Hints:
Blueprint: H1 4-52, H2 78-82, E1 85-89, H3 91-98, E2 107-108, E3 124-127, E4 137-140, H4 141-148, E5 152-156, H5 167-184, E6 189-193, H6 209-226, E7 229-231, H7 234-237, H8 260-271
Parallel strand pairs: 1-2, 1-5, 5-6, 6-7
Antiparallel strand pairs: 3-4
Amino acid sequence: MNERSPQRARAIRIIAVLVVLIAAELAVLVYLLIDRTDSRQSAADQSVADQTAPAETATIPTPTAEPVVDLAPTADMGQEYIDKLVFLGDSTTYGLGFYDVVPFTQVWTPASGTMALDNWAIETIDYRDPASPDTSESLSIIDCAARCRPDILVITLGVNGIAFLDEASFKQYYTDLINAVLAASPDTKIICQSLYPVMDSKAPGGIDNARVNAANVWVRDVAAATGTRYLNSHDLLMDSTGNLNAAYNNGDDMGIHLNPDGFAVVMQNLRTHAYQ
Length: 276
């Protein structure tokens, strides 16, 4: 045998191994080049997509409109408008019938002429049906609302409660009253009228203009919470000191009741701030 044959065979085996290793290295390089090319293509595709995709529009919240609470000025709606109103209240409302500003068929007060806010659910109204105004019957406020179903109910109530009711209690009684009326007569529009100013020098203990002013804020808050309307007649009746103008007081020893001139101011305010 030729002595070089084993060496040649060994050389061939070494060359074969090298060829295999080189081929493996080349395969790895090819794979890495392909993967890198794919990555670059994906990034390019994403960049194009980002450029062509519509930009996201920021959502701007729609501002919530403030609820309508205060009755706005209107044209003078005249006596025809006043004839649609029913007035619920205490002794500061009773004077409307007593002075013939409106007939007693439009005045809801107890026979005593007065009522405390916290007693509204147990008091009875001296109710007079328009069809028989000379006779009356005692009905609860809820029964009056269910029977009469007034177009517009003007509530002026609370002066007899401000001496002892705190804010939460005052608002709760007032809210319960409104809800009860609306449950009995859903189509009735309700005006929560401000309490009138008083004469501090004559008003009974616990009733003064500081409490009246606080209560009027509470009344307005209740109107806002119940979707009813608020009318400020208070400011039209006070003098420069914040007291009830003496020209509008009926001379009572309590300093809280209006005379016909005072009620004329209230009626004018109602006619020119109509609930439409």
